[in-house]
Amino acid sequence: MVIFFVVLIFSVVQSIFGVGLLLFGTPTLLLLGVSFDETLWTLLPSSVFISICQIANKYFLINSKKEMYFFILPPIAIGLILILSYSELVDIKKVVGLFLLIVSGIRLSKWTQKVLRNFIVKHINVYCILMGLVHGISNMGGGALTVLMASLHNKKEVIRVNIAFIYLLFASIQIITLFFVSPHIFSVQDLFLIIISGTTYFLVNRYIIFLINDIVIIDGLSRSGKFYLGKIISGIQGLEYFIPNSEAERIIQINEAGTLTDHDAASLLTVAINEAIYSMAIGRNINMRFDDGSSILNSFEKDLYLRRQNTGSSGDNGLKTVTDNKRSSVIMLHQSLRTIDMIKSSMPKSKIINLRRHPIDLVYSWIKRGWGSRYGSDSLSFDAVYEHEKGLVPYYAKEWAEDYLSSNDYEKVIKSIVYMTEEESAVITSKQYDICCVYYDNLIEEPMHEVSKICTFLNRLPHASIYKTVETERRDTSFLSQREMKMKYISSGIQDKILFKKLVNLGMIYEENINKESE
């Protein structure tokens, strides 16, 4: 029974951090009097199962050099054979205890971590060999693996997935080696332990890791029509009404400008989104302003939100109105795709719907809204701005402030749209994450086709009310004739014709993408 609790507790740790079942389970079982080979046979199958679960839907993030395997796996087998062959001469408890102390020292000392990372840069193959030997001898290679992955990758989610993958290889080579050196008859208890670890993993990922794991993000450049899309998406079964969140926006903007680290931004973003979801779940801070697009009065479930506000529960009971009913929260962000790695590290299981609009339409709308001159001078401009010696610039232009400030109002807008559109396209093209792209033209002309695409992406069904929402919000627009007018208007205010041509080319790419969608 004690073994079951050991596997249960440290399965929780491994489910969250990628390591733990072997790192902490090994010394625990040894102290309980279990032999080293039986300890391995007890823990390794469960570790393998959890690692497989951790990488199953994120294999595209695995980016470990294949040649590393030749420097890691053979030393593990050699170390394991040596320790089992001379088990009568070696006090395995002291060996494991020593390496556990070393691992703890590494974790607590930033200086030691820095030294190890420098060593990895210069002698990665030597580090891999030593790590393999340590793991084979003591089962304590998880700490060294964490340092290695943190040195090779910058993003938290990428680090976690690659740790799980290499840990899977660790356990696999150990099981193969054990099969020949110390055979084991598979029992019902072993199967039960695997079931415990697997169940723990799924429960942890469902209820513990993040409240905000299962959310939908609506993203797109300002003035791309996200509020229109938000009203439609909120008519899909099981989705909360969309929440614009200014605190999350500021965190993302400051992170993009480079003045807030990814780690700190992800932590703050988690708190901000969690708070927004909790407030929505208990009916706090609900927008009931009649003519606001984000008002819950536009929702087909407005009575639900009013009940939450008037008679709803708080605390855990309030959250259960969302989690127990398998409802997903919908968060609206503006032009955040360029920080997707940070966002994904904060919300690993979030699904992103990116709304794209013709660059000509965006530039025209921005100019009409005065976004070539409003930053820093308009109290109703809520985006982060940065001070340059020649003036204030929006957060996204911090790295090209001179070019931005030397332009007239029209050119500032064009350069902003061109820059953000190209950056956004690069993220989408990389296909590093699963993103559903929706084009505004198609959303207007064939709304139900786009609804079907979004429902497929989210694996949800539309509510009957969505048809009424689409009909109510339907907009008749002659895109071609309007764009000809807009192009003339835009070209009249700029001197840099090369810049205008670049904008036109981006518009042509947008139109090509729409045609591909229609094929």
Spatially, the strands of the biggest sheet line up as 2-3-1-4-7
How many whole angstroms does the radius of gyration measure? 27 Å
The appropriate CATH architecture of the largest domain is 3-Layer(aba) Sandwich
Class by SSE composition: mainly alpha
Mean pLDDT: 84
Query: Span between N and C termini?
Result: 60 Å
- Pattern of helices and strands: HHHHHHHHHEHEHHHHEHEHEEHHEHHHHH
- Summarize the main sheet: 5 strands, parallel
Helicity level: 55-70%
CATH topology of the largest domain: Rossmann fold
CATH class of the largest domain: Alpha Beta
Strand content: 5-15%
Uncertain residue segments: 209-213
Structure report:
- The protein has 519 residues and is mostly helical.
- It folds into two domains: 2-208, no CATH class; 215-518, 3-Layer(aba) Sandwich (Rossmann fold).
- It is built from 23 helices and seven strands.
- It has helices spanning 2-17, 21-31, 36-55, 67-85, 92-108, 110-138, 142-152, 156-181, 188-208, 226-233, 246-256, 262-282, 302-311, 315-323, 340-346, 359-369, 401-405, 409-430, 440-445, 447-458, 466-473, 479-491, 497-518, and strands spanning 215-220, 243-244, 329-332, 351-356, 385-388, 391-394, 435-439.
- A hairpin with a 2-residue loop joins strand 5 and strand 6 (391-394).
- Helix 1 packs parallel to helix 3 and helix 11 (246-256) runs antiparallel to helix 12.
- The longest helix is centred in the first third of the chain and has 29 residues, at 110-138.
- The N and C termini lie far apart (60 Å).
- Residues 209-213 have low confidence and may be disordered.
